[in-house]
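Whiteboard transcription, Tuesday session. T.W. wrote the C-alpha cells on the left side:
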C-alpha cells in the first residue's frame, strides 16, 4: 500500500510542477524549459533567483502554487521515509541480529561454553552447572537482548553511512555534470561543487546559476533525487550524531553551568559507565528495563507506556475500543461462569473459566502495546508469564533445545523459513522446541514482540475454546445416549407388562 501511495504522490507532484510550468510559460512568456526550471527550484525551496515573476499575475499565483507544491512535496518525502527507512530498518535490523547471533554462538563454542546453551535435565545436572533451567534460559534471554541492542546501534550507524554516501555521490557527481554543462560560463570544478552544495542544502545564494539548455534539465532531474536523499540523511543523523551531540551537551552541562545534585566523582563514574554501555550497545536494554520496571501489576498485566509513546492513529484507536468492549463482555461472562462453577463445587470448570479470563485479559493488554514507538520490549518475567499462559514452562527442559548456529531453510516454494516459530505448531498440532538464541526465538525475525504475543495468545484462546466446545458436545452426546437408553428400557418393560396381562386374561 505504501509503494502505491508513493507512486501516486510522486506522479501528482510531477503533474503539479509541470502544470505550474505551463501556467508560468503562458503568464510570464518564458520558454517552457525555463518555466520548469523555475517551478522546480521554487517547490524545492532552493530559490536560486535567476528567474522570478515580473507580472502581478505571476506573483499572485505564486502564493497558492508554492504552498500546494510544498505540501505535496512533504507528502512525498514522508512516504519515502516510511518506505525506505521503516521497512528497510526492519529488514536490515533482522539481518544484523542474525549476524551478531551467529558470531556469539561461534565464539561460545570456541571458548567451550556450549554447555550453557544445552537444556538442563534434572537436579543433578543443575547442581553440577550451578544454575537451574530457568536461570539458564534467563541468561540466554539477556544475551539475546544484548545482541539486539548492539545490532540496533550498528544498524543506525550503517544506515547513516549508506545514506551519507549516497548524498556525497550525488553532490560530487552533480558537480561534475554542472561543470561540464556550464562550460560556456567557464566554471571551475570547485565553483560547480560550490553551486551543487548550496543547491543541495536548499540555501540558494543565486551567485551561480544554470544558463545552458543542458544544465537546467540536469538540475531538475538531479534536485529531485538530491533533496529527498538529504531528508533521509538528516533523519538518520537524528538517531546517531544528533543524539551523541545532545548527550555530550548534557554531560558538559553537568560539569559546568548546570551541575547536578550528585557529587562530581559520582557523576564522572556514571558518565564513564554510560559511555561504556553505549559503546557496547547495552544502553537500549537498560532504558527498556527502566521503562518496564516499577510496575505494581503482575507480569504481563501492563497497559500503555507512562510516556504515552503510542501512536495516535484513528483506525487503531477505533479498533482498540471495539476490542475492549467485546473482550470486556467476554471477561464478565467467564468470571460469572467461574463463580457459578465454584458455587456448585465444580473446581475443574472454575479453573477452565479463570484460565480463559486470564487469556482474554492479556489479549486486551497486549492490544494496547501495538504500534508503540519505539516498539514494546517485554522483560524476561513477562515473557515467562505469557509463555505459561500459552502452555509452556520456562522451568521445563522438554520445551527447549540447544540453539543452532546456522538457520537451515528446508522449505521450498514461497514458504518462509522457520523464524519466530517456537511453541505449538497449530497446523501439525505438535510442540516445537526452541531457544532464545535460536532461529525460532520470538526475538528473531521482523515481527514485533507485541504482535507475536498477540498472535499466540489468540491461537491459544481459540484452541482452548474449541477444546471446551468439544467437551460440551461429547457430554451432550453422552447425556443423549443415556437418556435414549433409559427411554428404550422403560418402553420395553411396559410392552412386556402388557403382553403378560394379555396372557393372563
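and on the right, the sequence the group agreed on:
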Amino acid at each position: 500500500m505504501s509503494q502505491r501511495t508513493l507512486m501516486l504522490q510522486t506522479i501528482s507532484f510531477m503533474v503539479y510542477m509541470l502544470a505550474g510550468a505551463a501556467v508560468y510559460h503562458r503568464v510570464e512568456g518564458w520558454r517552457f524549459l525555463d518555466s520548469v526550471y523555475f517551478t522546480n527550484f521554487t517547490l524545492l525551496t532552493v530559490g536560486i533567483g535567476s528567474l522570478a515573476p515580473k507580472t502581478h499575475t505571476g506573483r499572485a499565483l505564486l502564493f497558492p502554487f508554492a504552498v500546494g507544491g510544498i505540501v505535496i512535496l512533504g507528502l512525498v518525502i514522508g512516504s519515502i521515509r516510511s518506505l525506505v527507512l521503516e521497512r528497510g530498518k526492519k529488514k536490515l535490523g533482522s539481518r544484523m541480529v542474525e549476524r551478531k547471533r551467529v558470531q556469539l554462538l561461534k565464539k561460545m563454542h570456541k571458548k567451550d561454553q556450549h554447555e550453557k546453551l544445552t537444556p538442563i535435565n534434572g537436579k543433578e545436572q543443575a547442581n553440577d552447572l550451578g544454575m537451574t533451567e530457568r536461570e539458564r534460559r534467563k541468561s540466554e534471554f539477556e544475551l539475546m537482548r544484548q545482541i539486539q541492542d548492539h545490532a540496533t546501534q550498528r544498524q543506525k550507524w550503517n544506515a547513516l553511512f549508506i545514506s551519507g554516501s549516497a548524498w556525497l555521490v550525488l553532490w560530487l557527481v552533480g558537480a561534475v555534470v554542472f561543470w561540464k554543462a556550464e562550460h560556456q560560463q567557464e566554471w571551475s570544478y570547485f565553483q560547480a561543487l560550490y553551486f551543487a552544495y548550496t543547491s543541495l542544502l536548499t540555501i540558494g545564494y543565486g551567485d551561480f546559476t544554470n544558463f545552458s539548455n543542458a544544465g537546467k534539465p540536469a538540475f531538475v532531474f538531479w534536485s529531485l533525487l538530491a533533496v529527498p536523499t538529504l531528508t533521509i540523511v538528516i533523519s538518520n543523523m537524528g538517531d546517531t550524531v544528533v543524539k551523541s551531540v545532545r548527550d555530550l551537551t548534557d554531560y558538559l552541562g553537568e560539569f559546568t553551568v548546570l551541575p547536578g545534585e550528585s557529587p562530581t566523582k559520582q557523576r564522572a563514574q556514571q558518565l564513564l559507565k554510560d559511555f561504556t554501555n553505549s559503546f557496547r550497545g547495552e544502553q537500549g536494554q537498560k532504558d527498556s528495563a527502566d521503562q518496564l520496571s516499577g510496575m505494581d501489576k503482575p507480569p504481563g498485566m501492563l497497559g500503555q507506556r507512562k510516556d504515552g509513546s503510542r501512536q495516535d492513529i484513528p483506525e487503531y484507536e477505533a479498533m482498540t475500543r471495539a476490542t475492549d468492549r467485546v473482550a470486556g463482555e467476554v471477561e464478565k461472562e467467564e468470571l460469572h461462569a467461574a463463580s457459578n462453577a465454584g458455587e456448585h463445587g465444580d473446581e475443574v470448570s472454575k479453573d477452565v473459566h479463570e484460565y480463559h479470563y486470564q487469556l482474554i485479559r492479556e489479549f486486551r493488554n497486549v492490544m494496547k502495546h501495538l504500534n508503540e514507538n519505539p516498539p514494546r520490549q517485554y522483560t524476561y518475567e513477562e515473557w515467562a508469564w505469557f509463555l505459561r499462559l500459552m502452555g509452556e514452562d520456562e522451568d521445563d527442559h522438554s520445551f527447549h533445545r540447544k540453539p543452532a548456529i546456522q538457520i537451515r531453510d528446508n522449505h521450498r516454494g514461497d514458504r518462509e523459513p522457520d523464524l519466530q516459530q517456537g511453541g505449538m505448531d497449530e497446523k501439525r498440532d505438535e510442540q516445537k522446541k526452541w531457544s532464545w538464541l535460536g532461529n525460532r526465538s520470538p526475538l528473531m525475525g521482523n515481527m514485533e514482540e507485541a504482535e507475536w504475543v498477540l498472535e499466540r495468545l489468540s491461537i491459544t484462546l481459540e484452541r482452548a475454546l474449541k477444546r471446551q466446545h468439544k467437551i460440551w458436545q461429547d457430554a451432550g452426546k453422552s447425556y443423549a445416549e443415556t437418556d435414549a437408553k433409559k427411554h428404550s428400557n422403560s418402553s420395553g418393560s411396559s410392552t412386556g407388562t402388557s403382553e403378560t396381562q394379555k396372557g393372563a386374561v
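Someone added at the bottom: The first helix runs from residue 2 to 27.
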